[in-house]
């Protein structure tokens, strides 16, 4: 089992969920026009991911050995429920955050990053603590990617961009460059 | 006043009862469960066979001459044979394989292991000869290393040559290409130092974890290796 | 009518190039043409089966629980295709890995159930599903071919450029996915713009 620091750093930087595994692209390309919204969505993601990591570990250890074919369905149901729960909690604890996030909160359910986290963590056989650390790293990485793209996009708003490139095409190319930059993190905390 | 007597002529839309909602979902769940259980039981034999074939190929590749294998699990300070069923998780940290040739003689032990490499985890299986105290085979099972550089750990013939007779004692060392002088040294791949070092770290960890346990197992059960009939 | 439903998925409403849906698999598994094709076919199986089922039961599934019902149906077919691939094409299964399971959160599939299959009869739903799936597979293949040819010098595993070619390794790495799709979108937009302008000119004349 890899050590916890490696798990965290790998998920955050070296194998960033969004920039290396292409998970969570819908919000990445859709919600990053404002830095503030993007950042908050990232935080909500981290929270849901941690809950999902715990629940999928529990399911994988105690329930799924009896019915391995129910894996996907149970994971999805757990994620949908966690998102509902987070939605209710946010509504109660911080109504303005709830309003700011709007429709993007329920959309976390179909965010491949959350399901991806559950699948990867259980495939790798991570235990309880490893799963949580992995979720924190992965969620942090998603938030980092969201924040980076959002900041750059805010800058581009004032630039003179040809119509053809505007929109998703440009965002993808920017994302590609950020992804290239993140490749520089490879080798961090591995065999020295 | 007369307005209160006016009741709309439209009949209200009936809201489906909770029972209806739950039963709809229950039926969907039931259908799903049946389809999944059926597919699972129909495809399981093939999936198992595929897994076993892949494992067999890997073991035979690192233990030349093997025709069969048994699964051994760590048990205290020695090993015991186990038979793993369909759904069991083969936790790599606790399992090694012993290869046997056509004359039922032991060819060696195949030890899987994994370690973070340059990009992501590198998964490897090595063949170990406890009499010669050397690694006799090496196969990369999983790698996400950089194409053209790190992926040479399984593409470069020169690197593979390191593992045909690699002494594991006192420990395996990494040296620069062209500087191998001793049996326990591995020549790194130029331009892929970290991937090469990760492999060596992995091997040292594996050997540290299994060498003495394997020795105890062989002593306890008085097992001899093929071609080393007289030695213990 | 059916033909129109089928064709719209190929170009005019192509799920990847126009609606930008189903991005995750589009970039993750398109580092080679074979993987792209396999993912496209797996998604086709899931989309077609789910759409058929949803359309057949559209009047029975209560509105309040429809999303949950769709997800259960989709997840079931995804699990089925996962087992089928693991049993019959273990190599492809290993390459695609967890991304097969991730088909279930492909917004394309859930989107089609909600927008079309739940509101139309089975024949139309089938045509729509097939059109969208083929459009999706076509888009994945475009990306996969570009990435493999440039990044590995091969097509479906067969060398294309000969010995001397120095591959643009970046193309088979993650940034390559972003770039490939970005530039393809650019090209797609360019073609659509041109057609629009041509049509405008024609009208003016």
Seen as an oligomer or otherwise, the chain set is heterotrimer
What is the helix fraction of residues of chain B, given as a range? 25-40%
Portion in strands of chain B: 15-25%
The number of domains of chain B: 1
Mean pLDDT of chain C, to the nearest integer, reads 88
Summarize the structure in words.
Chain A is 69% helix and 0% strand. Chain A contains eight helices and no strands. Chain A is mostly helical and 192 residues long. Chain A has one domain (4-182). Chain B has one domain (43-221). In chain B, β4 and β5 (121-129) form a beta hairpin. In chain B, 32% of the residues are buried. Chain C has 205 residues and is mostly helical. Helices cover 67% and strands 2% of the residues of chain C. In chain C, α3 packs antiparallel against α7 (122-152) and α4 (66-88) packs across α5 (90-96). The interface between A and C is large, with 37 and 40 residues.
Summarize the structure.
The complex is a heterotrimer of chains A (192), B (232) and C (205). Chain A has 192 residues and is mostly helical.
Summary keywords:
heterotrimer; A: 192 residues; mainly alpha; 69% helix; B: 232 residues; alpha+beta; seven-stranded antiparallel sheet; two-stranded parallel sheet
Layout of helices and strands, plus pairs?
The complex is a heterotrimer of chains A (192), B (232) and C (205).
Chain A: H1 4-14, H2 25-30, H3 35-62, H4 71-93, H5 95-101, H6 112-123, H7 128-156, H8 168-183
Helix pairs in contact in A: 1-7, 3-4, 3-6, 3-7, 4-5, 4-6, 6-7, 7-8
Chain B: H1 18-62, E1 68-75, E2 78-82, E3 95-100, E4 106-116, E5 121-129, E6 134-142, H2 152-155, H3 157-161, E7 166-167, E8 173-175, E9 185-187, H4 193-221
Parallel strand pairs in B: 8-9
Antiparallel strand pairs in B: 1-2, 1-3, 3-4, 4-5, 5-6, 6-7
Chain C: H1 2-8, H2 23-28, H3 33-56, H4 66-88, H5 90-96, H6 107-115, H7 122-152, E1 154-155, E2 158-159, H8 174-204
Antiparallel strand pairs in C: 1-2
